[in-house]
Amino acid sequence: MLGGHWNADAFPENWLDFRRDPPRLKPYYKDFRPREVHVLPDGSQSLDGTRGFFLPGDFRFCLACGQSHSSGRDWTRLGSLSAEGRSSATTTLTLSSLRYLLGAETELADEARKLLGFSDNRQDAALQAGHFNDFMQILLVRAGILAALEAKGGEVLTDRDLAQQIFTALGLDSSNPAIRADYLQNPDQRVPRLRRDAEEAMRNVLGYRAYHDLRRGWRYTVPNLEQLGLLQIDYDGLQEFCEDDHHDHGPRWPATLPLVRWHAGVDRLPRQRIGAFRSVTTGGCSRSFCLEGFQAGLNRRTILNKRENFRTAFCDFDIDTVARFTEKDVQRL
């Protein structure tokens, strides 16, 4: 049972039949619609009890955020920090201990600021070491992103300067050899071209890691910065494109299926732009957007081998034509 103030009409879009006006709940989902209940502290139902909603069967969608779940087990959908494994718990305790040992409030001498870990087998030690390294990498990348946003003073941070801003925020542009040793094989490299090439390679790695970390993830215990509400990502020019009604075929988006508008991000606008990515107004970006979306969970070669089939299904990736897709087209896909 879930408490709260759920709107009785706020069903996921895939639960609704948009061929009706107004849209109606599909017959299959009627038996799974949340039921309002009032429960007393002793578990009995009464109108004087706390208001909540009972979800028959599996946890099919979240009443708070509207996220729909079509597969998987309930314990993974409802997982919390208590569902995390031993490696993450050990990493968190280790990090907390290091913050104390290296902090200014500790009274320990420099030579005593050490942390030793013991394991009963090499395999477990290697697993924990790798987990800790991954955790630190995530922290550094996310700290760099947040520091870069703060350095912009509220301005938009675009994909054109994201990698450079993270590189600068982490202090990797320093001339200090001790800092350069973190990513340069030869920190004292004096050949300008070689040093620039090494810095460019490091910026590319940081940019890739940043985008990889910002992608949609399903690890409930490690949400990304956007899921935590610390930043928002928007597509440069998308709002103007969606509001542009001067077209041979008339307004494109008002007559488009809600599902198509949702995936295009139209129904989420306007919103404050803190981060911006490439525009999706061109055919090339539309093609990349489509193929990257279908690649989720699959091998990239599998998608590329069927690229021509995708081109046919999505009308040569013409975004205007796709915007006019009907329910029949969605069923065809």
UniProtKB/TrEMBL annotation:
Single GO molecular function: DNA-3-methyladenine glycosylase activity
Source species, domain of life: Bacteria
GO biological process assignments: base-excision repair
Protein name: Uncharacterized protein
